[in-house]
Specification:
With 158 residues, the chain is α+β, with helices and mostly antiparallel strands. It contains four helices and seven strands. The two termini are 26 Å apart.
Length: 158
C-alpha cells in the first residue's frame, strides 16, 4: 500500500468508498458525510482550504482503497478535524487506517494544536483505534459541528 495526496481523478472513487461504507452501517442519513455537498469534489475542496489535505491509499494495482483528510475546524484556528477516514472492506484489517491517521496527524502537528474528530459509537473498531492513538473521548460535540448524526467525539493534543 502507498499513501499519496488526493488528485482530482480520485474524486469519484473516494465518493463511492465513503457512500458504500456509510450504507453498510445504515448511516446513509442526513447529518453524516453521506450528504456533504463537497463529496463529489473532495480534491478541490481540500486544495481550496488553508492547512488542509486529503490523502488516499492505493494498492499495488494503483487502485484507491481508502482515504483521510485534515481540515480546519470551524473558526478555531488551533483546532483541525480529522475527516472522512474510510477504507474499502477488502483493505480493512491490515493497519491501513492507522497508517492514514499517522500521515494526517503528522501534517496536523505542523499547523494545529488540537485535532478533533466525530464518529458514531457503533463503529467500534474505529473508536478503539482513536483511543489507542491517544484521542480522548468528549461528552459532546464541539461548537460548530456540522454532522449532527454523530454520537461520539474525540480530541487529541498534537
Amino acid at each position: 500500500m502507498r499513501i499519496r495526496e488526493m488528485e482530482e481523478r480520485d474524486n469519484q472513487t473516494i465518493k463511492q468508498i465513503i457512500k458504500r461504507s456509510l450504507e453498510s452501517f445504515n448511516l446513509n442519513i442526513p447529518g453524516t458525510a453521506y450528504f456533504d455537498p463537497q463529496l463529489s469534489n473532495l480534491a478541490q475542496f481540500y486544495k481550496e482550504q488553508s492547512n488542509a489535505k486529503y490523502w488516499v491509499a492505493v494498492n499495488e494495482l494503483d487502485e484507491v482503497v481508502g482515504g483521510v483528510g485534515i481540515a480546519p475546524f470551524g473558526q478555531k484556528r488551533e483546532i483541525c478535524e480529522l475527516q472522512k477516514l474510510y477504507i474499502t472492506p477488502e483493505a480493512q484489517g491490515k493497519g491501513l487506517s492507522k497508517e492514514l491517521m499517522k500521515v494526517a496527524l503528522d501534517f496536523a502537528k505542523e499547523h494545529y494544536t488540537y485535532c478533533y474528530l466525530e464518529t458514531v459509537k457503533k463503529l467500534q473498531t474505529a473508536n478503539l483505534l482513536y483511543s489507542k492513538l491517544g484521542f480522548q473521548q468528549l461528552e459532546k460535540a464541539l461548537e460548530d459541528s456540522e454532522h449532527n448524526a454523530m454520537d461520539a467525539w474525540y480530541i487529541i493534543e498534537l
